Amino acid sequence: MKQTFAFLFKAALVGMIISAVILLMVPDLRQGSGVPLSFFSSRQQTAEKLSFNHAVNSAGPAVVNIYSQSIESGSIYNKSQPVERTSLGSGVIMTEDGFILTCLHVIANANSILVGLQDGRRVEAQIVGYDPYTDLAVLKVSQDNLHVIAQLEDPATRVGDLVLAIGNPYNLGQTITQGVVSRVGRNGLAAYFDFIQMDAVLNEGNSGGALVDSNGYLIGINNANFKTLDSRRRVKEVDGVSFAIPYGLAKKVMDEIVANGKVTRGQLGVGAQEVYGHSGIMITSVTPGSSADLGGIRAQDVLLAINGHASDSVTQTLDFIAETKPGTVLEIEVSRDGQPVTLAVTVAELGSGN
Fold first, then answer.
1. pLDDT in tens, 246-260
2. Which terminus of the chain, N or C, has less C-beta within 10 A?
3. 119, 143 in Cβ contact below 8 A?
4. Does the fold of domain 266-349 match that of domain 53-140?
5. How far apart are CA 306 and CA 14, in angstroms?
6. pLDDT in tens, 15-62
7. Are 313 and 274 in contact (CB under 8 A)?
8. 70 catalytic residue (yes or no)
9. Is 105 a catalytic residue?
């Protein structure tokens, strides 16, 4: 009898120990959810993978393929025979009523423009207007059920942000390349003055496509790879250096083109540079016959203020002038040979020749 009792006691004790171990190994049992089937599987569980599928699914349907056809004169051997050329690019659907942003060089000199939507539709597009200074163009298609890309008033793009470039390189179909932002906004790189710089790969056909963040929000319009000259003075592209027009600038240009058919900018006709260690900016050149020339501004003047606002940055000063409506009279304060001079200068329209 004692032996039987001892055996049952040991069996119960061993059972309690085993139960405790199982409860420690399988937490779900402590919550009453039962033993998961994966517990009996010999397959190793993997960590959740990093994916930008959501961003691509959100933005991808809003990026279109653009095929622009132009008729060019014949070759030097057969001038009477015109040649039809098709250029390839991408675009971004910005509004439900069919306004599309792309790059001007994608549709330049086009006789007809065909837009390929991601749902298979191919439709003709009309040019609403363009801006050669930012290389942007606005197209319009008359279609329903358009997928508009997600937009934020301020995408708050930062150096180090991961970005995705979406476009149609070499007409391969929609392609995604990934990169990191290395510079935002003003970078002093001549023609790429206002561009986002990143290392996402851009190829022929990517121009005009979308640059989006990891959540699928539009942050820029893809434009070009950086190019330089080799030792033989031939143009070559530089890997890992690409540019996109920032969303804020692109949206502003689009809105003005939609409203007015073009972008109007002001100019005075001056060149300038920073004056380090002193207030104001140095006027380095004045275009003959320009509004600055007519208003009395001279080279070597130090521009101190416009309409009472201090001018210490060339970029900000030229931006202010560019955003001023042509015909506006500005009160400009300069220092000339150490003496203060106040001038009234009328803003001219950029590209008007004044």
1. 999 899 999 999 998
2. N
3. no
4. no
5. 90
6. 677 766 666 666 655 565 555 555 555 556 677 788 999 999 999 999
7. yes
8. no
9. yes
